[in-house]
Every structure is written in C-alpha cells, then in structure tokens.
Design goal:
alpha/beta; Uracil-DNA Glycosylase, subunit E; 2 domains; six-stranded mixed β-sheet; binds iron/sulfur cluster; UDG_Type-4/5; 4 iron, 4 sulfur cluster binding
Length: about 300
C-alpha cells in the first residue's frame, strides 16, 4: 500500500529537483483534488489525510520556493528508460539496515549562483571541457595522457556518478567508464532502471594516472576546480561516489568507504552516496550485493522503487 507521507515527501523532493534544474513553473495544487486523492488512497494508520500531509510537508518554505507546491499537483516522477541489466541476483531483495539520515547537522547549503537551463549548462560544460583539454597543471598526467576525459551524460541529471580517474580505455577514447569497469557501471545504472544517457558520469581527475595508480593528492587538488565547477553546473539531486578517491575528495574526509557507506552525506544541496568502485567489484564480486544495497538506498529515497 502506498504510504501517503512518503509519497508526498517524494513529490516535494521532485518539485525541488525540477526547480533546481531550471523548471520555473509548476501547477498550483488544487486542495479539493488533493483531498480527493487522499481519500482515494484511504490513508492507513492513525491520523487523517491532512495530518499525514502535515507530517510529510517540509518544516518551512525554506527548502522549497513559494511557487512550488509539493503536493498532488506535482507531475509524476521523471520517466526513465527501462533496461534489463542487473548487477547481481539479489536485485529487489530485502532492504538493508541502513540509515536514511543525511549526515549533516546543518541544513543544506544551496549551490552558489543561479540554476541554468539545459542549453546553458551544456554550453558551460563545453567551455570547461575545452579548458581541461588544454590543462597542464599536473606535469606528469598532462604528459602521459592521450585524451582528457571530462565527463558525459544528461546535463540536468537526477544522479551523477563520480569516479576516480580515467583508465586505459578511457584515456584512448576520451570518454568515462567505457572499459570493463565501465560496462559494470552501465549494468549498475540499468539495474536502477536508468539508461546511461539519463545520468551524468564523471571523474575526480580528468587525466589518466600512469600505470593506473591512484591520483596524488596534489593532482586531485589541481583538478578540484574542474569537478566542482561541473557539479555546480549539473546540480544533481544525488551524487554517487564510486570508491575511496572520489568520496574522500568530494567530502574532504579521510574515512574509509566502509565508514562512509549506508547513509547520505551532503554536498551543497546534493545528497551524496558512497559505494564501491566498479573496478573493486570486478575484483571482489561478493561486494556487489553491498553496492546494490547502496543504490537501493538512493532509489527508495528518490521514490524510484
Ligand atoms: S588531472 Fe586535471 S588538473 Fe591535472 S592536468 Fe589533467 S585536467 Fe589538469
């Protein structure tokens, strides 16, 4: 049975997401229609539909613009392309015992500046991509690389996947996650009922470290301006950090993936989820179950399962 409080909270989250990606107008909720809908679902448990709506509503208008009505009139969830791929047989299994709390005592700080429309986002990203292609901040990486790997995908995504750095296949093609690890990431994305084109995929450093070593801290700091600018343009609702390097770089922490998994963190007003890198999952297939648990945490929060 649908939980009205969860449904209304998810509608509110979607309304915030639409506003963040530049949708400037949403229809105003019709209170009579909302009441009729509430009656239709015959809310379970204690309390009236009105009480349920009160519980689900944001505590104040601070988290949503006054013109946005996170109620029955909000449009349905963003349609996503279906796909049959699955990470492992445990898809759809029982919920993991994870916290749904955001790991921040403070309210989310909004991304600075205005949220751009999609064509302006694409233009800004193209500009940064050109800068990256000419970048020589890291002496070793800029000499070793074949191509820089800026990132690709939906410029108004609900989800951005944030990896470590290009490998050999990515260095040759100039595209993120196209090797074996990329194929597994594509399956993970498809298991979430997204197509690759629905999400944005990017890395912490844009040049391949030699012999696939981890990027050095100085290289990460050199590239920070680029990945931060990307995220500021994209403003995804969720950022999925793939592995230790991206998680530690984004969240400025020294904690392990094991300590960071299982709850949401905050990066401006994006919710950040940390899970294992697909390369790690290829070497340790037993960890796929845990990675799928992580993705399900996001899917449930996003109202997509
Ligand atoms: S890794 Fe980033 S900062 Fe370093 S050379 Fe490449 S693009 Fe420039």
């Amino acid at each position: 049975m649908l939980d009205p409080a969860v449904t209304l909270a998810q509608a509110g989250g979607l309304a915030e997401h639409l506003q963040r990606i530049g949708v400037q107008w949403l229809p105003t909720a019709d209170p009579d229609a909302a009441a009729a809908l509430a009656e239709h679902f015959r809310f379970a448990g204690s309390g009236s539909p009105d009480q349920a709506a009160d519980q689900a509503a944001p505590p104040s208008s601070a988290s949503a613009p006054p013109s946005v009505q996170p109620a029955a009139a909000a449009p349905p969830a963003t349609p996503v392309a279906g796909a049959s791929g699955a990470v492992q047989p445990s898809v759809g299994g029982p919920a993991p015992a994870f916290s749904l709390e955001v790991d921040s005592a403070d309210p989310a700080e909004p991304y600075p500046g205005p949220s751009l429309a999609s064509d302006a986002r694409a233009a800004e990203l193209a500009k940064f991509s050109e800068q990256v292609a000419a970048c020589t901040r890291c002496e070793i990486l800029s000499k070793c690389r074949t191509k820089t790997v800026f990132g690709e995908g939906n410029v108004s995504p609900r989800v951005a996947f944030f990896g470590e750095g290009p490998g050999r296949d990515e260095d040759l093609s100039g595209r993120p996650f196209v090797g074996k690890a990329g194929q597994l990431l594509t399956k993970m994305i498809q298991a979430c009922k997204f197509a690759r084109e629905d999400v944005y995929i990017m890395n912490t450093v844009k040049c391949r470290p030699p012999n696939n070593r981890n990027p050095e801290p100085t290289e990460i700091e050199n590239c920070r301006e680029y990945f931060q600018a990307q995220l500021e343009i994209l403003r995804p609702e969720y950022i999925v950090c793939l592995g230790l390097v991206s998680a530690q770089a984004l969240l400025r922490t020294k904690l392990s993936v094991g300590r960071l998994r299982g709850k949401f963190h905050q990066y401006f007003d994006s919710k950040v989820l940390v899970t294992y890198h697909p390369s790690y999952l290829l070497r340790n297939p037993a960890a796929k179950k845990a990675a799928w648990d992580d993705l399900q945490l996001m899917l449930r929060d996003a109202g997509l399962m």
